[in-house]
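We modelled the chain as a single entity of 389 amino acids. Its sequence is:
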Amino acid sequence: MYNLLTLNKIAKCGLDNFDKVKYAITDNCENPDCIILRSFNMHDMELPQSLQAVARAGAGVNNIPTDKCAEKGIVVFNTPGANANAVKELTIAGLFLASRDIVGGIEWAKTLKGNGAEVGKMVEKGKSNFAGCEIKGKKLAVIGLGAIGVLVANAAHHLGMEVIGYDPYISVKAALSLDRHTIIKNELKDALCEADYITLHLPLMDATRGMFNAELFKSSVKKGAKLLNFSRGELVDTDALKSALEVGLISSYVVDFPSDEVIGFPGVVAIPHLGASSAESEDNCAIMAAKELIEYMENGNIVNSVNYPNCELPRTAGATRITVLHKNIPNMISSITSAFAAKGLNIENMVNKSRGDYACTILDVANADEASAEELTAIDGVIKVRVIK
């Protein structure tokens, strides 16, 4: 039986995927085989030797030490696309919040309480202070065309916007899903220079941290553009943003990641990280994370990992499934297969995939057992070996 540790409250529809005969689900376990979580910070957590896999019910994995996990042979999964519709819908709302001072108008309307029959007259007199523009006919630059970015681009087109897309790493799946009216630019500056609205849908990494900085604002952004950030706050340099707002280079900033520096700053609409906060999104993420863990724990297949390559192999009837997580270095495959050949064991099927410094080899071996696979751990570069009956 596998010990499954939950570090956050996980939707019941996700946990119901686990066979209770095979999994003991608990929120308190010293030696878990696998972990499912949402926003719990694992960086200060001691990673037990027993841990095989971690699944994040969500897209971002900044709360998980993915590199440390990779070194220990712990596969980390996320759930790309499971919360995409929820974030898309809030981004569309962000377009309207950036266009009209809806928040300011609502707050002002509250101050009219107690004026009785005069409220109507006061509304008509004061409403012009909160007027804005329509989004129809405006140009929207979607920076990052993953699962969320594509949905936003398509929805914006149907709302009458002219959509410009930029993503140097766009996948074939995303490209096929993108509305044909979207204009793709090969350079970031070309996507930004004419855009009335800019929406960010990028992962946070070293290459993207602070990429919207003073130089980019001054050199590439159209004066008065409205900026939306439903990805990560750190994509935007805060000091540069505040300066851009002060001089009108950016006319409004809608962000789903409030910080002390931007809360209350003129032109900023700070939303308390509601992007994926919908019942449907939480359910979708929980179900997807559960299925990823089950597939890995029971079959060794890796789907949607952030620190190991995706690697899948259909099970061969009668054979023993063996998974090997190892460094991506020369002669690994020959060393692994030679170890089985030396014992007279036949490899019925095999697949090897690599990603950066790490790789995964899955083998179906006839008549193999724990002892026959133990020798693999002595091979230089092998990180973890699992035998799955």
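As a brief sanity check on the tokenised model: Residues 84-100+133-270 form a domain with the Rossmann fold fold (CATH 3.40.50.720). The chain has a mean pLDDT of 96.
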